[in-house]
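>> received
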Amino acid sequence: MNDRTSDRPTKNLVLEYDLGAPPEKVWRAIGIAEFRERWLPDSQLLESAPVSTVPGEEIRYRLRDDEPPHLESLVTFHLSPNGMGGTTLRIVQGLDETSLTQPQATNDNRHALMRAA
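>> returned
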């Protein structure tokens, strides 16, 4: 297994690996819940069902941190055959921008102003 990194800056965490297993076998490990549960348990997922799937090529899951502030992220697994009969697995994880919004305080300490009629 080779770990390759990208030189371009990004807001996402991007990891790329060359695996010796064929794409079909890697797809089974990430796409079938019983196999995925061994290395990515449902307890770490916001939903056990994938957000989106392109069979044999890409699958995306929504994750949620166990600790405050309980940020949510999307992790996408991209598979492609490499030239050695194995698989290039690219993992992209980024924060879900909707989980970054802060709730508004009920008491914002502003004075109510009334208009004179």
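>> The first strand starts at residue 2 and ends at 4.
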